[in-house]
Automatic annotation (TrEMBL):
GO terms for cellular component: ribosome. Belongs to the methyltransferase superfamily. PrmA family. S-adenosyl-L-methionine binds at residues 153, 200, 222, 260. It catalyses: L-lysyl-[protein] + 3 S-adenosyl-L-methionine = N(6),N(6),N(6)-trimethyl-L-lysyl-[protein] + 3 S-adenosyl-L-homocysteine + 3 H(+). Coiled coil: none annotated. InterPro entries: Ribosomal_L11_MeTrfase_PrmA, Ribosomal_PrmA_MeTrfase, SAM-dependent_MTases_sf. Residues 167-187 are annotated as: Disordered. Methylates ribosomal protein L11. This is Ribosomal protein L11 methyltransferase. Its EC number is 2.1.1.-. Keywords: Cytoplasm, Methyltransferase, Ribonucleoprotein, Ribosomal protein, S-adenosyl-L-methionine, Transferase. It comes from Pelomonas cellulosilytica. One of its GO terms (molecular function) is methyltransferase activity.
Amino acid sequence: MSNLFELALVCREADVEIVSDALMEIDALAVSVEDADADTEAERALFGEPGMPAPKAGWERSVVKALFPAEPEATEAATLILAQDWAADVHVQAIQAVPEQDWVRLTQSQFAPVEITPAFWIVPSWHEAPPQARCVMRLDPGLAFGTGTHPTTRMCLRWIATHAEAAKSRSQGASPTSAGGSSNGHGGSNVSWPRVLDYGCGSGILGIGAALHDAKSIDAVDIDPAAITSSRDNAAANGVTLNVGLPELARGEYPLVIANILASPLKLLAPLLCAHVAPGGHLILAGILQRQADELKAAYAPWLTLDVSDLEDGWILMTAQRPA
Ligand SMILES: C[S@@+](CC[C@H](N)C(=O)[O-])C[C@H]1O[C@@H](n2cnc3c(N)ncnc32)[C@H](O)[C@@H]1O
């Protein structure tokens, strides 16, 4: 593989956009921006808490890196940029050869199979499933949120897998006459939940997870059109059926309602989500930080009693069961 040449320019936050645009105008193959102070004492956090605005719009000083096919193009680009009247505070950090990479393989190598339970795994299409996996969801990273790598998604899937397993064991242990008549709405030995609502479905990962655990009639809804397309595609790739659409698609009561969004929208959605939970049914909420547990409890208290039932990396899973 041949080398590319990288021009690295250091500039102030205010100049990042004009420098990046100018590099694209002069035919850079790619432009990226990094923190010039990364790993130094001057480094500052750029991200706020989930749902909160970022403390700053950009880094104090940035390195704008542009790739060119050969060294003369990179040098010429540097000369052109430095000649502009707005470039007084821009300087060249380096022009150097970078080995061209197999970008597809590099991206793929960053997504490994994710273990949800010892038996249930999320596996990208280019990977073999681990030998111990008895239930496999095939999912590749895409535009919509939900690859199984985020703790909030993993906790929801873990809840689905463990409760479906428990329901299966109960119904296998139950007598033929009692199997279809349980008060939690489980309709028979092969059905964990006869209806599921996945509210804020993203990639469709939770609805697909429920379908792979023998749930039927799954409504997966989202406000983002990219999520709707992605959920449909991912369901098809897994050979399961989801009824995917905008939130208006949700109708009536469900034995399982699951929503992994964020604390603020979840508080606003409290009356709506609770109204969808069937008698004896479960409500599962994620996207909540540990310190937000009390505010969520209070928001849902008029309808359901939420408890913390799982915790991972500072995120909690909150669940409630409506009395039968
Ligand atoms: C954190 S992602 C979760 C995706 C997936 N369910 C998972 O567990 O990985 C939250 C999703 O909720 C959607 N969303 C946000 N607010 C919403 C609302 N008010 N109604 C429906 N969906 C919403 C977003 O578009 C996004 O796809």
